[in-house]
Amino acid sequence: MKKNILVIPGDGIGPEVTTWGKAALEKIAEIFGHEFTFDEALMGHAAIEVTGEPLPDETLEKARQSDAILFGAIGHAKYDNDPSLKVRPEQGLLKIRKELGLFANLRPILLFDELLQASSIKPEILRGTDILFFRELTGDVYFGEKTRSEDRNTASDLMIYHRYEVERIAHKAYQAAQQRNKRLCSVDKANVLESSRLWRETVQEIAKQYPDVETEHMFIDNAAMQLIKNPKKFDVVLTANLFGDILTDEASQIAGSMGMLASASVGESTGFFEPIHGSAHDIAGKDLANPLASILSAALMLEIGFGLKEEAKLLVDTIDQVLKDGFRTHDIADQSTNRFKVLGTAEMGKLVIK
Amino acid sequence: MKKNILVIPGDGIGPEVTTWGKAALEKIAEIFGHEFTFDEALMGHAAIEVTGEPLPDETLEKARQSDAILFGAIGHAKYDNDPSLKVRPEQGLLKIRKELGLFANLRPILLFDELLQASSIKPEILRGTDILFFRELTGDVYFGEKTRSEDRNTASDLMIYHRYEVERIAHKAYQAAQQRNKRLCSVDKANVLESSRLWRETVQEIAKQYPDVETEHMFIDNAAMQLIKNPKKFDVVLTANLFGDILTDEASQIAGSMGMLASASVGESTGFFEPIHGSAHDIAGKDLANPLASILSAALMLEIGFGLKEEAKLLVDTIDQVLKDGFRTHDIADQSTNRFKVLGTAEMGKLVIK
Ligand SMILES: CC(C)[C@H](C(=O)O)[C@@H](O)C(=O)O
Ligand SMILES: CC(C)[C@H](C(=O)O)[C@@H](O)C(=O)O
Q1: At residue B176, what are phi and psi to the nearest 5 degrees?
Q2: Catalytic one among A3, A172, A189, A210?
Q3: Residue A260 in contact with residue A290, Cβ under 8 Å?
Q4: Is A211 helix (H, G, I), strand (E, B) or coil?
Q5: Burial B309-325 (b: 16+ CB within 10 A, else e)
Q6: What is the per-residue pLDDT across A222-254, written as a single tens digit (0 to 9) for each?
Q7: Which residues of B touch A217 (CB under 8 A)?
Q8: What pLDDT does residue A258 have?
């Protein structure tokens, strides 16, 4: 198989983890005889520094021409500390999601047995958990009109949904549920929000087309609670953009660490694959980051982007083995025991590739 | 001390739990020689059934004339299943918050040692946690303009904040932090939302007036994760209305159960005290609900509403003792052992009063 892959390392720990996601793809190509060619482009703070823009035209052009994108992370402390800055790294990520029509963000909560202990949640609560989030990614308060009054004392963001936006992601989520445990939980705040009432109405309609899937509707506040109280009860979770952002980060504790979760954004064309962790400027460049989420992003690219199931499985199994052998990065090492061999980013990356 | 207290039982399990919050207040009055008089009023589905309105004028009038309000819960399955209904129970709660100017919702995460095991989170992660949430309660996407297009295919809610709304709750939160561990974490999504950028800017300004308090700003997605990863790191948490709704429900797992958490809404005049749990129609009328959150709401009324610290402490200590003696309601009983004496709502209520 021949594929053009665009690598966008981004900011903070992005470059150091993406190195290993890319290395994993190269290794897979070598083993299975595929031909993956790579190009690289700038986004976020890294792009602002060079071009003044968080998403340079050149990056968008390359993205459109690629078969899949491997992305690192975005964001920088400078902007977080100064809310008045006009040009911001995250605008690059939001724009590329919109421009490429990446309306469905899939976040599987993959639980490695070996990491059951790394979570703050009790192992007996976690064991057997297997959740697939479908987060809507190109609508909601993320993309609605923003205003700031002349005197700067009033600010607003429009939380808005169109029926077709809910429909298309609902179909994807239901289709996935049919392949899994046939349960779908749609999360909203329909007791307060009009956009959530549209969301709920629409999901109720779509549900009729999938009578084999059991549908539940849950308010976001309750969902945030149930997710840690009884994660096993969830199968496919369908959410709007903002609620999905919150719930999936929360769910990362189920997997033991944010450093273990990958996501796939798909929609109209090219797929976009990235760790769910952020740029973590505080540990950037210190060889402390966990490269496994980037390698798992590569696995998602193989599976969801290219339909290469066996190749993806090899990566996941290798990570599983490395964990079984007692190797850990800092974020997933239980400090209270010395059963584990704690590795830096590069050592862990090398080990998996080998 | 003479006080007029309005009891609004509301919907679902509201009436059966509020009975015990009220009984606790009566008992305290008897013991300490206070004169509490009680009146009752309708709100939510209960009010719609009788008057057609979720917040009848009479209820609002009584509320204005009372010194404090003890509330139960709101909501009904009928409305949750039919998003197209125009008159909805929750409108009553939102309206009374707005009308009484209850802009600050205080949600203490009170951890009873005895319940450490009832949580899905590991006891060693929880032990020592003591968080006080300040949730803004009369602004945000809850109260911004709602629209639905003619063809019903587009719906929106305006997420909006004014600087003075952020300032007044920030002051309250900082003042509380000064009396506690002098740490304040403000939660927002300033990397995406303009209203969050106003929020962050304003908190940064107010922070300068409280140099003895250490301020941290955190994105909501990260906060949802950190809260269960390392709850001990939080002291006072300051949030907007929607983010606070989500985080405090999530935090209820820290306290072992939603059935254990009370909240105080304060602002311009009369205080409003309620459990954070919802109406839980599925268990309503079955003597399964936990009355402790309503009794703890009564304790918050005594402490925050009337400044009666000793009286409040007696209620909290009594609950602590009842738990130490091995009594539990269903929600907090560990089913895997028979160390506990599991009681119904009324038995638990009676026991605490006695
Ligand atoms: C960086 C930020 C804009 C982004 C989001 O909120 O979507 C991130 O948190 C994510 O979840 O991908
Ligand atoms: C019932 C609902 C409107 C309410 C809210 O969202 O504020 C509830 O969840 C709460 O937290 O008090």
Answers
A1: -65, -40
A2: A189
A3: yes
A4: coil
A5: eebbebbbebbeebbee
A6: 999 999 999 999 999 999 999 999 999 999 999
A7: 80
A8: 83
What is the percentage of chain A residues whose pLDDT exceeds 90?
A: 90
- Placement of tokens 């459990």 in the chain: B275
Between CA B296 and CA B257 the distance in angstroms is 13
Q: Whose CA is nearest to atom 2 of ligand 1?
A: A90
CA distance A292 to A114: 14
Low-confidence stretches of chain B (pLDDT < 70) are 335
**Ligand 2 atom at minimum distance from A221 CA:** 9
Cβ of B230 below 6 Å from ligand 1: no
- Residues 6 or more apart in contact with residue A169 via CB below 8 angstroms: A103, A104, A134, A136, A238
Kind and range of the H or E run holding B47: helix B45-51
Catalytic pick among B79, B142, B161, B210: B142
Chain B contact present for A220, CB below 8 A = yes
pLDDT for A354 equals 85
Cβ neighbours for A267, distance < 8 A, ≥ 6 positions apart: A100, A101, A102, A103, A104, A137, A138
B45: nearest Cα among B100, B90, B97, B99:
B90
B121 part of contact set with chain A, CB < 8 Å: yes
Q: Is A264 on the interface with B (CB under 8 A)?
A: no
Residues β-bridged to residue A40:
A7
Q: Does A135 touch chain B (CB under 8 A)?
A: no
What domains are defined for chain B? 1-104+258-354 (3.40.718.10), 120-254 (3.40.718.10)
Judged by DSSP in three states, A33 sits in: coil
- Per residue in B122-139, pLDDT (tens digit) is 999 999 999 999 999 999
pLDDT-above-70 percentage for chain A: 99
**pLDDT single digits (tens) B60-75:** 999 999 999 999 999 9
Instruction: Find out whether B249 is annotated in a ligand binding site.
Output: yes
A200 appears as a binding residue in the annotation: no
Distance CA A157, CA A166 (A): 19
pLDDT at A104 over 90: yes
Tokens of A309: 């199931």
Q: Residue A336 pLDDT more than 80?
A: no
pLDDT of residue B136: 98
Mean pLDDT of chain A: 95
Q: Which pair of tokens denotes residue A17?
A: 């983890």
- Residues B200/B221/B238/B161 CA torsion (nearest 10 deg): 50
Tens digit of each residue's pLDDT (9 = 90 or more) over A146-162? 999 999 999 999 999 99
Chain B: give the shortest CA distance to residue A106, in Å.
16
The pLDDT value recorded for residue A63 is 97
User: Which amino acid type is present at position B73?
Assistant: A
Query: What's the pTM value of the predicted model, to 2 decimals?
Result: 0.95
Cα A146 to middle of ligand 1, angstroms: 17
